[in-house]
Amino acid sequence: GGGLDRAAMRRLVFSDPSARSRLQDILHPMIRRESEARCLSACGVPYVLLVVPLLLESGAYRQRVDRILVVDCDEAVQISRVMARSGLTEIEVRAIMATQASRAERLAAADDVLENAQGRENLGARIGALHKRYLEFAGNGLDANILNADR
Fold first, then answer.
1. pLDDT tens-digit readout, 71-103
2. Is the Cβ–Cβ distance between 88 and 82 less than 8 Å?
3. Cβ count within 10 A of residue 8
4. For a Cys staple, 73 with which of 16, 23, 26, 117, CB 3.0–4.6 Å?
5. 48: closest CA among 71, 64, 25, 60?
6. Would you say 70 and 114 are in contact if contact means Cβ atoms under 8 Å apart?
7. What secondary structure does DSSP assign to the chain, as a single string?
8. Distance between CA 131 and CA 146 in Å, rounded?
């Protein structure tokens, strides 16, 4: 039907580093352009969140953001959630995780950590506190338009 066979693509890119690199070379510039366009069009908002699953692996985002927020849970919870969401086996999930930054690397890079082991229903108060903090940062002149700084 012309659609992407996601399972076949996943098998290919997680078994062949050169195929993964080619896919990233295609997707990352397009994703970067789209995220930049959306940030620039977000006039009148105090701050913008970029949701970047491979933030550390891409290497380029740290220069484009003021803070890094990591939404965290332990590996067992992460694996079970991916298996439930995507229908993958534990072996497949672990193979994917092996190509990504480790939990320790993500936490070391984080300015803020939102613990998410308990699920969405337990996040409200912590998200509210982060929102208040980010509004304070924006009000104190943290560079909310960092995308224009490198032009």
1. 999 999 999 999 999 899 999 999 899 989 999
2. yes
3. 9
4. 117
5. 64
6. yes
7. -----HHHHHHHHTT-HHHHHHHHHHHHHHHHHHHHHHHHT-TT-S------TTHHHH-SGGGT-S--EEEE--HHHHHHHHHHHH---HHHHHHHHHTS--HHHHHHH-SEEEE-SS-GGG-HHHHHHHHHHHHHHHHTT--TTGGGTT-
8. 19
- How far from chain centre, in Å, is Cα 128? 20
Q: What is the pLDDT of residue 141?
A: 65
Enter the tokens of residue 17: 């580093």
Residue located via tokens 């929102």: 131
Residue bearing tokens 């208040």: 132
